[in-house]
Design goal:
It is a single chain. This protein has one domain: NAD(P)-binding Rossmann-like Domain (Rossmann fold, 3-Layer(aba) Sandwich), CATH 3.40.50.720. The protein has 7 helices and 7 strands; from the N terminus they run βαβαβαβαβαβααβ. It has a 7-stranded parallel β-sheet, with helices on both faces. α1 packs across α7. The chain binds nicotinamide-adenine-dinucleotide. Nicotinamide-adenine-dinucleotide (NAD) binds next to α1 and β2.
Length: 270
């Protein structure tokens, strides 16, 4: 805000709970990065509606968090428009408003067969979950987000920018998310802001449902190839998500942010 003439700009405190009472919908929110984002939103004072294919994982979150009506779960398949419609309607019925949407659900394994052997079914499945899923969730949540002046975050990947061999379907789906991000930012603004986060290597083993949970097995070399000296965690993504969902980032839209411990800026001569 511009200060009135002849008055010095004030030092205003930074809110420790920038998402107080905000309602954030998180797809694929029951495990991995999605669960990390959900816990960061709760820590910032927000409320979360999880949607996930895995019912057991969703119920485990609610049982382990013990945050009462600040969190809810409903089964969701982001690739099905009927399922997305029901999930968004359930969130509105439970919480009465939607202030944030995080499109995180995805087929996280980037490796597919070589292109000559890549079936159309596999290609379409990656696109349906990783890209069309985000479109469907935006489409159905946008009216409520526009009412509240909300924000959308699309979880893409550094693989939208760089590749290993035999990852075409995954990379294309994540590149599509970046284009969806800037296009929707222009269409949905000024009411709704839309940004993307591009995670690098994030270890999610400790963030799975209880019977699949494990300590990550990471070597010294795994950590050392990151300029920050370590592999990432879901909370590394959660803390940026909180910022992008909060009014502290009100002047930021249509952008994408790499969170990868510096791996994509490190030059390699093998
Ligand atoms: P994960 O497999 O640990 O968790 C994904 C969650 O999404 C699971 O709970 C799964 O049940 C759910 N899900 C899958 N398909 C779904 C669907 N159709 N509808 C609803 N829920 C569905 O994955 P993760 O590693 O936490 O990845 C989360 C997101 O971050 C993905 O979009 C992935 O591409 C992206 N990402 C991950 C990494 C990484 O290193 N972990 C790096 C870059 C990007």
């Amino acid at each position: 805000m511009t200060p009135p003439r002849n008055q010095p700009p004030a030092i205003t405190p930074i809110d420790a709970h920038p998402l107080r009472d905000r309602v954030v919908l998180i797809t694929g929110g029951a495990q991995g990065i999605g669960r990390g984002i959900a816990q960061a939103v709760l820590a910032a004072g927000g409320r979360v509606m999880l949607g996930d294919l895995d019912i057991e994982a969703g119920q485990a979150c609610l049982a382990e968090w013990q945050v009462g009506d600040r969190a809810a779960f409903k089964r969701l398949d982001v690739a099905s428009e009927a399922s997305v419609r029901r999930w968004v309607a359930a969130a509105l019925k439970l919480f009465g408003q939607i202030d944030g949407l995080v499109n995180n659900a995805g087929i996280a394994d980037p490796h597919v067969p070589p292109l000559a052997k890549l079936s159309l079914v596999t290609w379409n499945r990656y696109l349906a979950v990783n890209l069309t899923g985000a479109f469907l969730c935006c489409k159905h949540a946008l009216p409520a987000l526009a009412q509240s002046g909300g924000a959308v975050i699309n979880i893409a990947s550094t693989r939208a920018l760089q590749s290993e061999p035999d990852t075409e379907a995954y990379a294309a789906s994540k590149g599509g998310l970046l284009a969806l991000t800037h296009a929707l930012a222009v269409s949905a603004g000024p009411a709704v802001r839309v940004n993307a986060i591009l995670p690098g290597w994030i270890a999610t083993e400790a963030w799975r449902k209880p019977d699949e949970r494990a300590a990550p097995r990471l070597s010294r070399g795994d950590h050392a190839q990151h300029p920050t000296g370590r592999v990432g965690t879901p909370l590394d993504i959660g803390s940026l998500a909180v910022y992008l969902l909060s009014s502290q980032s009100d002047f930021i839209t249509g952008q994408h942010f790499v969170v990868d411990g510096g791996m994509t800026v490190k030059m390699q001569y093998l």
